[in-house]
Each structure stands twice: as C-alpha cells, then as structure tokens.
Write a structure and sequence with these properties.
single chain; DUF2794; alpha+beta; DUF2794 domain-containing protein
C-alpha cells in the first residue's frame, strides 16, 4: 500500500429510498398540548355526566381526529377534527356528528366545542 492510501477512509451514506433529498417526508397533523387540554376537559365533564365512555385519537396526513364513543364497540358519537388546510377558509376545527354532518366549524376550538357543551347542560338538567 502506498503511504497516502493507508489513512483514506471510505464513507457510505444510506438514505431512505422513498424520500429523496429534495422532498420532505410526509407529515402528520396532530393536536397541540393546549388543544388536547381543552378537548380532554370537555371529555372529562361528559364522562362524569355518564354521556361518554371512550375516545380515540387519529393523526393522519391531512387531519387529526378526536373521536368520542358512548361504548367502545360503537361508531363514534362525535368527531372533533383539525384540518390545517382550512385555516384560512372556514376554520380548521370542526365537530362532526354520527352521520358525518358538520355540527360546527370555526377558527377557535373553544367556540367550536360549545355545541357539545350545550349537550352537557341538557344531560345534567334532565
């Protein structure tokens, strides 16, 4: 071996074949800690009232969904959705009913969740 070849090192860089250096990896939409605290506060009150029993959080590419169930094996009673692409249009937060109907949509999460708090007031009054 020549004296200058002894100190040469070969470095190999391995990259994920699905992601090229010029494109970003797919991102997921998720609820922020402050958003989750608002949602879980409402969830706790509804559980205490006996209306809700279980929930599921789904973080997908374009939407984050907090689904609420009366029983675990059922379809969700309500879905609280966050769609950042709709931020400048109708608002990125929405409450969806069982049949897929939009109960409320807006820019402020607390204002959107008021549609469900009304149901809490009725549940306590009955």
């Amino acid at each position: 071996m020549a004296p200058d070849q002894r100190n040469c090192q070969i470095m190999t860089i391995h990259t994920d074949p699905a992601v090229t250096p010029f494109e970003r990896a797919p991102e997921q939409v998720a609820f922020h800690r402050t958003e989750l605290s608002v949602i879980l506060s409402l969830y706790g009150r509804m559980v205490a009232a006996g209306e809700w029993r279980d929930y599921r959080i789904s973080c997908l590419r374009e939407v984050a969904v907090f689904s609420v169930f009366r029983r675990t094996a059922e379809i969700p009673l309500y879905r609280i959705e966050k769609r950042p692409r709709l931020r400048s249009k109708q608002g990125m937060y929405a409450v969806m009913g069982t049949g897929g109907q939009v109960l409320r949509r807006g820019h402020d999460l607390k204002a959107v969740l008021r549609v469900l708090e009304r149901k809490l007031i009725r549940a306590v009054d009955d």
